[in-house]
Design a protein that fits this description.
The protein is α+β, with helices and mostly antiparallel strands. The relative contact order is 0.15. The chain is built from 6 helices and 9 strands. The chain is 32% helix and 18% strand. Helix 1 crosses helix 3.
């Protein structure tokens, strides 16, 4: 097994391969975003990345955000969401809770007030069911601000929502009209 710091580095590598650049290890994502684990390990090793099956399974099991999913017989892996490559994760549209949240940095507010929330290089806008998760996401980019999304009204107006295996709500765009901006940043 590897130490926690190395597992974190390998987790970031897996995110790169499974969300954005499978060609990094000479592979193409299968339908649904899946990659055979044995092929992924072989491709990683060919690139000098010390990945093995026990470490990969440990990374999947320990990831608190459940970024990765395994198929039933644990022969394939995929990212739960966050892809920049076109992928159909096979998620069915669902009715969202009345309110969802999006964490961002205050420096992005001016743009969001004009354009709404855009996927920014991903396939979907990511929304959280709770403010704490949204705040944690926003802190990664600077001083955080939590935007409240009127998901019920969006849904009633024909906007589709999906929910990933790890509970992240996904939609293509959040127009400004459905965003409640805080009067002051927290």
């Amino acid at each position: 097994m590897t130490d926690p710091k190395e597992r974190r580095r390998l987790s970031k590598f897996l995110s790169l391969v499974l969300r954005h650049k499978p060609e990094t290890v000479g592979l193409v994502l299968e339908p649904g975003g899946w990659l055979p684990i044995d092929d992924l390990i072989a491709g990683a090793r060919a690139q000098g990345v010390p990945l093995d099956r026990p470490t990969l399974l440990q990374i999947v099991a320990e990831n608190d955000k459940r970024r990765f999913a395994l198929n039933g017989d644990q022969t394939k892996i995929r990212a739960s969401q966050g892809h920049s490559v076109p992928i159909d994760l096979g998620l069915m549209p669902q009715q969202p809770p009345p309110l969802l949240y999006h964490g961002t940095a205050t420096r992005f507010l001016d743009s969001i007030k004009i354009q709404g929330l855009l996927p920014q290089g991903r396939n979907h806008v990511h929304l959280s069911r709770d403010q704490e998760t949204a705040r944690a996401v926003g802190q990664r980019y600077g001083k955080p601000v939590i935007l409240t999304i009127d998901a019920a009204t969006m849904y009633d107006n024909g906007h589709a929502f999906l929910v990933s295996a790890n509970g992240v709500w996904l939609t293509l765009h959040v127009p400004v009209a459905f965003i409640d901006f805080p009067r002051t940043a927290p």
